[in-house]
Amino acid sequence: MNRLVDATSPYLLQHADNPVDWWPWSDEAFAEAKRRDVPVLISVGYAACHWCHVMAHESFENEQVGALMNDNFVSIKVDREERPDVDAIYMTATQAMTGQGGWPMTVFATPDGTPFFCGTYFPRPNFVQLLQSVTTAWREQRDAVVRQGAAVVEAIGGAQAVGGPTAPLDAPLLDAAAGQLASEYDATNGGFGGAPKFPPHMNLLFLLRHHQRTGDPQSLEISRHTAEAMARGGIYDQLAGGFARYSVDAHWTVPHFEKMLYDNALLLRLYTQLWRLTGDPLARRVARDTARFLADELHRPGEGFASALDADTEGVEGLTYAWTPAQLVEALGEEDGRWAADLFTVTDDGTFALHSASAPQGGTPDGKKGVEKGMSVLRLARDVDDAAPEVRARWQRVVGALLAARDTRPQPARDDKVVAAWNGLAITAIAEFQQVAALYASPQDEDANLMDGVTIVADGAMRDAAEHLATVHLVDGRLRRVSRDGKVGEPAGVLEDYGSVAEAFCALHQLTGEGRWLTLAGELLDTALAHFAAPGGAFYDTADDAERLVARPADPTDNATPSGRSALIAGLVAYSALTGETRYREAAEAALATVAPIVGRHPRFTGYAALTGEALLSGPYEIAVATEDPAGDPLVAAARRHAPPGAVVVAGHPDQPGVPLLADRPLVDGRSAAYVCRGFVCRRPVTSVEELVAELAGAGSSR
């Protein structure tokens, strides 16, 4: 019997026809293990995960392996994106036992959920041997198994502890964090560290804000160079936009092909802010095309944004995206085909053979191949954004023809699950993109129509997602983690959901001037303060009334996404600035103090907290523009163009309902007026762009 057929998770549904007697995560599964007196096998992954597919094909679809699992275990399948709390606990156990982690994650536990053996991917022969060994140990060495599980749980509790040392996240600490990032920077390839190399979006956003505050040129150059290297590498889809999860090498060439919503949302923010601060045409193009990717490829009409595009197509990772020189010629003709091969670095040798460099434990699995030898992922060999008009026109024509040809190929599957936190990140990113796109709108631009089209569809997708979160994911005043096909799932929202969605609603309030979004943000933050607070200003990742696990997670570090604590801090800071309610700022400062010691030691894992720390150090400034024309007023454009780090900006009619920043902020002599405030203490209003720019010129400087 397989109990996954009614799941909302696409990942669980992928396993609904396995010969394994899977259970979803539930009390009933653990009760069944206790009744049968057998261990629990917990398999954790997600729908777009390449190596999860590999292990499924090798082991979970195999009748003999299924029988071995069914006879000796209660097997539970978990979607890590639906249950990040479960994933966090057992990932901590896996890392404690093996020194590494990843997905698929394979955990053996007692019937009360206590883990006693953990790992990641196992090739089928190794997995069969492991199943037999664990079965024997459970029957013949039960006491040793239980003792080992108790030691693992003790280690988890220590790793997830709250109430540690605190410190103010002040200017010297943020300066030191920027300096340490600079010392770890890969000056040749961009980014930090070696292979595999992940897009360091949160760290680069922090460095951009740090540059705004201090004027540090190195912070700007690290961000600019890394952004350019990623955008010209194989990790970026040169045809349709959007970034893959990571590069298996150190120079952004061969991607791990899954495309995640959260990465693309955070990278959209990065390229948007780089565009805002520098006017860089590459940043402009990549921001535009990433926004288009989100709206075209991940948005579900009438709902929100889907979680991911799969790494695999028809069981082969990268099949949709790789090319040979002959295929380029076939799609484009001889002359354009050779020109495109040179531009996109497509060679007879190819950029990869068997795509096994990203393998977790165990190497290349039996019978599982990547794209063939002699194929290349597209990379941009030289700059085209500043090229002559005829070169840009040819490049755009070639891109369009190649994309049309690629669309005839089999396409990767899409994980249609809507995750609250990741949709919050996407809403915030698109709201920022919409503001910056309006600053640079010009009918004279050669692709003005394209930019207009992208902003229109992105705006619609953003509003769809916000409405979906507000009406479907909010149930009886509490946030749910996921939905699919318009139906909300059972998993409760975790801290990152509350923080990211609250921050998104604050961003939407600034973009639209609608009071409803600010009200909803405040309600979410109040719920988080009431149900997730921990001693000493910290926060747990799960609510006080959530399901009890073997430990209560409280991870303060950023990983692929902002930590729950960092996300909540960002929401608290934005809401406090927009409303003037100081208790939210005080909660943010107390929470930042619990992360500050980690910022000082490990800035690569605290980028989101650090960028919010820069906002607090700057003010954050509150800029209100009282105007009869919020969409077209030059004062509004100037405020958004020159806003200091983390500033909030609202524009609208004086005393506009639901907009605290516009309360008692009149026009001046019938003219639009900008009010620049810090801590709700305002300078005199200004009525000209020149005066406003002068007011803001020193607002972000170090103090």
End-to-end separation: 65 Å
Coarse morphology: globular
Mean pLDDT: 92
What portion of residues belong to β-strands? 5-15%
- C-alpha Rg (nearest Å): 26 Å
Low-confidence stretches: 353-369
Structural class: alpha+beta
Question: Count of DSSP E strands?
Answer: 20
User: Considering DSSP H and I runs of 4 or more, what fraction of the residues is helical?
Assistant: 40-55%
Blueprint of the fold:
Elements: H1 10-14, E1 22-24, H2 27-36, E2 40-45, H3 50-60, H4 63-72, E3 74-79, H5 84-98, E4 105-109, E5 115-119, H6 124-140, H7 142-159, H8 171-184, H9 201-214, H10 217-232, E6 246-247, E7 255-256, E8 259-260, H11 261-278, H12 281-298, E9 306-309, E10 312-313, E11 316-317, H13 325-332, H14 334-343, H15 389-406, E12 414-419, H16 420-439, H17 448-473, E13 474-475, E14 478-479, E15 482-484, E16 487-488, H18 495-512, H19 515-531, H20 564-579, H21 582-601, H22 607-618, E17 621-626, H23 634-641, E18 648-652, E19 673-678, E20 681-682, H24 689-697
Helix pairs in contact: 4-6, 5-7, 8-9, 8-21, 9-10, 9-11, 9-22, 11-12, 11-16, 12-16, 12-17, 13-14, 16-17, 16-18, 16-23, 18-19, 18-20, 19-20, 20-21, 20-22, 21-22, 23-24
